[in-house]
Amino acid sequence: MSFQPDAGRSRVVLIGVARYDHAADYPPLPSVTANIDQLYEVLGDDVLGRLGPALLPPLHSPRREEIVDTVGRAAEEAESLLLCYFSGHGQLVEEESGPGRLHLQPREASATEAGLLGIRYAELRDLLCRTRAERVVLILDCCFSGNARLEPLRAEVPFALVTSSRPLGRQDAGDGRGPTPFTAALLDILRQGTGSPDGGPVTVAALRAPLRERAGRDAAAAPADSDPDDWQPYVGFQNGAEDTVLSQAIATPPPPRTARRPLPAWPATAWRLIRERPARALLVAAGAALAGTGLLALGDAIGGALHPPPPDCPVPLELRILTSPEYERPLARVLETFEGSAAAREAIGGRPVGCRQLNAFVYAAPDGAAARALGSSAAWAEPERTCAGDAPADAAGQECAQPLRDIGPRPDVWLPSSSIALRGTADAVDGAESAAYPGEPVTVATSPAVVLLPGEPPGGLRRSGEPLERLLEAAGEQDLTVLRARPAASAAALLHGMTAGPGGIQDVPLPPADDAALLCSLARPAGGGPATPAPALLVAERTAVDLVRAERRPACLSGAAGAALDQLTWDQRYRAYYPGDVPPLDLTFVPVHWEHAAADDAERREAIGRLGAWLGSAEGMRALGAQGFRDPRDERRALIEAPPLNHEAFVTAPALPRLLPPDEAAAAGYLAAEESRQGPRDVVFVVDVSSGSYAREAQYAALLRTAIGALGPEDGYAVLATPGGGADPVRTVRGLAPYDGADGVRTAIDALAPVERHAPITPALEAGLALLTPEPDAAETDRGRLVVLITDDEDSAGRLDVPADAAPPVAVVSYGSLGCEHLYNRMLIASGALCFDGSGSPGAALAGTLRGLTAPWEP
Fold first, then answer.
1. Is the peptide bond before 654 cis (omega within 30 degrees of 0)?
2. Helices and strands (DSSP H and E) totals, the chain
3. What region, left, alpha or beta, does residue 46 occupy, with left being phi > 0 and alpha being psi -120 to 50 degrees?
4. What's the confidence (pLDDT) of residue 433?
5. Which burial class, exposed, middle or buried, applies to 660 when counting CB atoms under 10 A from its CB (0-12, 13-18, 19+)?
6. In this model, does residue 296 exceed pLDDT 50?
7. Angle at Cα 466 formed by Cα 465 and Cα 469, nearest 5°?
8. Does residue 529 register a pLDDT over 50?
9. Relative orientation angle of helices 278-291 and 295-306, to the nearest 10 degrees
10. Rg for the chain (alpha carbons), in Å?
């Protein structure tokens, strides 16, 4: 039986690199643009591909970081099908033995750095296989793509690989007016079917025969002096991936469309210039005319340019929605429902009727970080305004705001988990330097604050209405550790903390960065052993849904970690208790408009308005309710009388008093008191500077500037580089000394240099731990301690041998292809370490962790 993907739970990433910064090394590939544009149309077609909700915006000539970020995000979100397509230049990077390994070249690649800047096929394969999706399909249309088949597939994943060339084979780049030969054949099959007698849909396995037949016909029709194997397809699969349906086209082709006369290359090129660089388009047109047949040619050229190619559907409008990390996945599901609604399908502005109108792109940042970014909206709108030249810091030594780096693209809609975050931005967005103009905020849903207690209910404890103080006492009576995220990044932690009062909650030394990280911290034993009781958690009810409902758990709690939770039957042991004195979280819809908006501003405003109206409609309320949110008119009432809130872990209709969130001054005062309570910190940075790793010099420097910038005058830090000199595992770049401002940071970074040797990661990490580990008879210190390892994982191996009770905590920043899934990093995580994936914004996340670092704590 064929596997029919669920579009709402699938993700499709289309990558096409048509233009390269180093054109002398990698010439332009105009056919690549046609490849991804036409695949987008076919896969999103309501009759053929039926994958419209799964399609991410196509990546046109992206850089490496954008590819890795997008694929990683898609892999995390996909639950049904994960489909990735790449078209561009492929390059073999020679090794000591074998035919060389395939590297897919992003926009910034060059021939001399193909291995460094290129994305190794195995890296992309492993990134895709980190998904929970039921099927993974990877399609490669590039020179040497056949070399991918020489590398093993991931045995544990239903995986399909489709390539366009034989091993060591180059291929035709196309004529620039339509798709490349391989993708043209693929598109024909997806549109017309395989021609097989059974008339079934197009599956991965069904591609094999017609692709081979088409390749043979093309070879037979080629001139005698050409390469007869110009393209040669390969279709491989394992673990059942062969039955994955890619198109509903059947053997009998659909009625032909009206024939279109192909455009010559010049008008099509000119039209793209008109859209992207209108001033340059006129100059190019005039130059072509003057070099050709005079004014008549000029008129023909401009006339062809001003009459666009046939009116195919344009790329959908990308609506950018920013929310908090713990709400990213549930709101992505809500927005998938919106994309399929009548409100989203209705034509926006002058867009053609019947075309897909918009894609809703959901991304996340803690409410506090998003509020600070909006407060620096000028830097968000025009990063060069405040980060001009090479100066990374302002006169006071603080790093300039870079929201685009730390948060992502500027949002069209902000959905903070609590309205508390809005109050901190009010003055900033009203200032003369503001480039953002938030609209009227509207509460669209609520989520009560809860205390999650494991085990049997304590005697005499009500599930709803008890004071928070009593619930914390109950946790103490059971000797439970009480965990919450950093109050500066979590509205739930802030509301709980303000209710308990300053010092009312004793945090662990390294509190999780946000509520999403808090859930992920449960993937390891809280105290380092299996006998450690499950901790009590201070979260919002909506966050608790992702823990107690196994089918909704985040990726970090899937696989082996999820199996461990199920063995402990945590979904039965945890129960939510609803304190009667903690205000609920109010999910707030904030439209955001920007000065000097793009030409599509009117369409964007219309789309924002539609989304806001839809969220308040009955259909939108049902979608929010399906994800565990409550009615904004009464937080005691579930939006739908169905899962996930009719679970024994929750109280379906808690008896809660109506409470308003605290004001901005009270919240700011509490956060200031918490920060002052944390005391001084000592941090040791262990930096992998082996030549392969330190090719990321700019990334490492930015990370160090951001992280060290979170420290203050009372804090100390050291920088160790590995490998060291001779037999030493490390070289001391900066000894442990007090923070000395931006100049000191710059001096330490400048002293780092690549070394042509493998880095002894484990001994280097042990050296960093030893620098902060007190002697056995030394007096206890009240300073927070942390060792930060920065590496690309190439040399990460071995086991740490340090006394667990005395060692400071560890945070690893991984720039490797597997990130935190690398075996060595997983071992660190299992021993209590934090891990930050270098493909995201690790500097901002690490800085937040340092701000929350506290002195050693005993449960």
1. no
2. 31, 27
3. alpha
4. 65
5. exposed
6. no
7. 140
8. no
9. 150
10. 28
**Mean pLDDT computed over every residue of the chain:** 78
pLDDT at residue 507, as a whole number = 81
Taking the C-alpha atoms of residue 340 and residue 752, their distance in angstroms, rounded to an integer, is 52
- 101, β-bridge pairs: 93
Q: How is residue 786 written in tokens?
A: 């942390």
**pLDDT digits 0-9 by tens, 5-20:** 999 899 999 999 999 9
pLDDT at 621: 92
Is 710 a residue whose pLDDT tops 90? no
Closest alpha carbon to 32 in 106, 97, 94: 106
**Residue 822: helix, strand or coil by DSSP?**
coil
CA dihedral 735, 739, 740, 745 (to 10 degrees): 70
User: Within a 10 A sphere around the Cβ of 191, how many other Cβ atoms?
Assistant: 19
Q: Is the pLDDT of residue 657 over 90?
A: no
- The crossing angle, in degrees rounded to 10, of helices 265-276 and 295-306 is 60
What dihedral angle (degrees, nearest 10) is formed by the CA atoms of 494, 500, 503, 509? -50
For β-strands 81-87 and 135-141, DSSP reports them as: parallel
- Residue from 44, 82, 68 nearest 191 by CA: 44
H-assigned helices in 651-726: 664-677, 697-708
Average pLDDT over residues 128-147: 90
Contact indicator for 46, 89 with CB cutoff of 8 Å: no
Rounded to two decimals, the pTM is 0.59
pLDDT digits (tens, 9 = 90+) for 792-823: 888 887 766 655 556 788 899 988 767 776 77
| Ramachandran area for residue 539 (φ above 0: left; ψ -120 to 50: alpha; else beta) | beta
Residue 201 pLDDT more than 60? Answer: yes
831: left (phi over 0), alpha (psi -120 to 50) or beta: alpha
Please tell me what DSSP assigns to residue 460.
Answer: T
**Length of the chain, please?**
859
Under DSSP, is residue 734 helix (H, G, I), strand (E, B) or coil? strand
* Cα separation, 314 vs 316, whole angstroms: 6
Report the C-alpha gap between 651 and 636 in whole angstroms: 9
Distance CA 441, CA 86 (A): 40
